[in-house]
Amino acid sequence: MARTHLTIPPLTPQDVLRFWKKVHIRDLNECWPWKASRTLRSYGLLGIRRGGNRRVNSMFLAHRVAWTISNNPIPPGLCVLHRCDNPPCCNPAHLFLGTPADNTQDANQKGRLAHGDKSAARKHPERVPRGEGHTMHKLTDEQVREIRLRHDAGAGSTYSLAIEYRVARATISQVIRRKTWAHVA
């Protein structure tokens, strides 16, 4: 697992040279994209080896390494943000420090936080696994129907139904109130 937000360790001249070889350096005003491995969200990843190991000890986000090389170590608790809003960019002129709250505010101002009808779940409900299609489901569609019928008929409390179906009482309550399994009639 990538430990991407750990403090960047002291880098050797070889580390720095290897890093910049993986960056497409262009004009100062342009983005400098990372050319090597990336995360699912396109942030660059750099593996750093220590202690003579052949294997990579830790993975670090490339833009954080670029900041560290070009400026100073990143103070604990701060994020490295992109002015250009381009995750693979490693141009130090496009990077700045901020708190996690600054990062959220920046993402919101740039329209990267989906709310309401813009959220992926609302725009593409067919892509969101629901009910039995979800890998962590504990109930079936038929059991959900039974729970609702029995509760409406007064044949079971949330406590007794939870014990019978081997789920949490809160799960039964959410099923009854249609907070979960709302797609089941």
How would you describe this structure to a colleague?
With 185 residues, the protein is α+β, with helices and mostly antiparallel strands. The protein folds into two domains: 13-113, Homing Intron 3 (I-Ppo) Encoded Endonuclease, Chain A (Alpha-Beta Complex), CATH 3.90.75; 125-176, no CATH class. It contains seven helices and four strands, in the order αββαββααααα. Helix 6 (158-165) packs across helix 7 (169-176).
In brief, what are we looking at here?
The strands form two sheets. This protein has a two-stranded antiparallel ribbon. It has seven helices and four strands, in the order H-E-E-H-E-E-H-H-H-H-H.
Strand content: 5-15%
Number of helices: 7
Strand tally, please?
A: 4
Please give the radius of gyration in angstroms: 24 Å
Mean residue pLDDT: 89
Low-confidence stretches: none
**CATH fold-type name of the largest domain:** Homing Intron 3 (I-Ppo) Encoded Endonuclease, Chain A
Shape: elongated
CATH class of the largest domain: Alpha Beta
Number of folding domains?
Answer: 2
- Give the class from helix and strand content and strand pairing: alpha+beta
**Main sheet: strands, sense, barrel:** 2 strands, antiparallel
Distance between the termini: 41 Å
Helix content: 25-40%
The CATH architecture of the largest domain would be Alpha-Beta Complex
Strand order of the largest sheet: 1-2
Order of helices and strands: HEEHEEHHHHH
